[in-house]
Structures are given as structure tokens and as C-alpha cells.
Design brief:
By secondary structure, this protein is mostly helical. It has ten helices and no strands. The longest helix is centred in the middle third of the chain and has 27 residues. It holds the Pfam family TetR_N. It comes from Microtetraspora malaysiensis.
Length: 190
């Protein structure tokens, strides 16, 4: 079992793996393909994770962990409640932008990766609920039922994550999150 503590070389390899998978997907790659593309041995890949499936899951977790850190950093630098909701959802959109359609499709078809995306979507929906409740409590947002607005946001986020919004509207996941940000802030603003 790989250690959670990585060497600089392993961290670099994981970053390059994430870049490759998010750009090209992962379903069609074998471990041999990945080793060749990343210019390393399969043994080196096995130091990151014990199988291709575990490697993919680790890469997806790593991507979303980094995205969440960037999102929260930007929200922390923002004070106005409406701006915090906008910054949160627009930064989610920005973090999804580099994900290729192939990667998103592969993630939807591979349960362990899909579960990571779903868990992050649930966390994002909870965060939106919290930001809305903060705005209502501060008197900046009109008196709305924050949990309900959050639930509507969560349902939309799940539909975005599952590809339903894109299929019906032609919007990318990133574009859909940007539209959701605008809609929510408009709906709750006084």
C-alpha cells in the first residue's frame, strides 16, 4: 500500500498523471501506456497506487482536493456575501474548465472516480447552503429558506455532475456552474 507521504518525485509524477488524465481521459489507457506517456516504470506508478483503478481514483481525489483548496482560498479572500457565493461557484466553474469531456465521461462510467466527483458535489452544495445562510443572517440576502435554495443548487449541481444539464443545454460543466452562480445570487439578493 502506498504511503500518503510522497517524495517530490512522486508528487511531480502525480501532478503529471492528473494533467494527462484530465486532458485525455483514462478508460483507454493501460498501465503500460501510462508508464510510457509519463516516462516512468510501472513500479514507479505502483508506488502511487496498487492498481490502475486505484491510480485513477488517487488522481481524481488529488485533482478535486487541489480544486477545493483553491476555491476556499478565494472565498476566504472575499467578504461580501453575494460575492462569496459568486466567487465560490465561479471558481468551481474555473476549476472544472480544464477537464476534458473524455475525462468527465470516463469518470461518469467508472464508479470509484464518479463517487469522488459525487462526494465533492455534495460538499459544494453544502458550502453553497452555508454561504446563503450567512448572507441571510447578515441581512444582505432577502429572507429565503437557505436550506431550500441550497437544495435547489444541490439538485442542479448533481444534474451538472451527471451530464444532464450539458446534454439538455449544450453548456459545459464549467459554463453551467457559472450560470448557476448568477441565478442563485440574483434569486437571493434583496
Amino acid at each position: 500500500m502506498p504511503s500518503t507521504r510522497r517524495t517530490a518525485r512522486q508528487s511531480d509524477l502525480l501532478e503529471r498523471l492528473v494533467a494527462l488524465l484530465t486532458a485525455e481521459g483514462f478508460a483507454s489507457f493501460t498501465l503500460d501506456d501510462l508508464a510510457e506517456r509519463l516516462r516512468c516504470s510501472k513500479t514507479t506508478l505502483y508506488q502511487l497506487a496498487g492498481s490502475k483503478q486505484d491510480l485513477v481514483k488517487e488522481a481524481v481525489k488529488h485533482y478535486f482536493r487541489g480544486a477545493a483548496e483553491e476555491i476556499e482560498k478565494r472565498v476566504a479572500a472575499t467578504t461580501a456575501p453575494a460575492d462569496r457565493v459568486l466567487v465560490y461557484l465561479e471558481t468551481v466553474a474555473e476549476q472544472l474548465r480544464p477537464l476534458s469531456r473524455r475525462f468527465l465521461d470516463d469518470m461518469a462510467d467508472f464508479r470509484p472516480a464518479r463517487e469522488v466527483y459525487e462526494a465533492n458535489t455534495r460538499l459544494a452544495a453544502d458550502r453553497v447552503r452555508q454561504l446563503i445562510a450567512e448572507g441571510v443572517a447578515a441581512g444582505v440576502f432577502r429572507e429565503v429558506h437557505a436550506a431550500f435554495v441550497g437544495e435547489v443548487a444541490a439538485a442542479t449541481m448533481r444534474q451538472i455532475q451527471q451530464g444532464e444539464v450539458g446534454a439538455r443545454t449544450g453548456l459545459s460543466d464549467s459554463e453551467a456552474y457559472a450560470q448557476l452562480a448568477s441565478l442563485i445570487v440574483y434569486a437571493v439578493s434583496s
